[in-house]
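User: quick one, fold this
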Amino acid sequence: MSKDYYQILELKRDASSQEIKKSYRMLALKFHPDRNQDDPESVEYFKEITEAYGVLIDPDKRRSYDLQRKIPFTRETVFSDIFSRPEFRDVYEDLPLKQEWVGRILNVGMIFAYEALVVGGRPGDILRRGMIRLASNRLNRMFHAVMDIHEKITVPGSVASSGGFVMLEYRPSFALRRIRVKIPRDLQSGTVLRVQGMGRSNFKKRSGDLYLHVDIESS
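Assistant:
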């Protein structure tokens, strides 16, 4: 599918790199999802203008786009390349965007921002490490999606208030497991407690986690 990146960023086709950055900054602030919480489309539009910025700010991508009028690169690649090049990512220095917010909205942004800003190195090294980290994170999310267990647990009001222990029975496999769960003080209903390593296990003896969704027993 063809997109007009110049139109998205409200630019002329001979726009300079400084004009591209200036327009992106202005639109990024305007459509910042935290400033448009009543507009569910603001997140997608922020991604759209970031994609346009990533293509037009990169001379090689821009040349390819201008010649082919097509998009031979994925959005994920565009985002990762922005954060692997200091001359591209400096646009964020003037924007009030928290790192965790950028990571959440752009998905891979935080990974490459970490590699670039914390670890450093040449652009190629940053990109390679970022892709390895991204692949590892994806595999880890897939593993936990399958191996984690979610259970409801009812905690007596007295224990929820003062802290203590409750016993829980659940089935991580065919066998019934009984464990003693530590309850912190002042526990609130709706809290989710994580018990690390008590989910399902695979043949490599690696286990997921157990998530306990708390309900406080009324007295």
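User: anything notable?
Assistant: Strands lie at 149-156, 164-170, 177-183, 192-195, 210-217.
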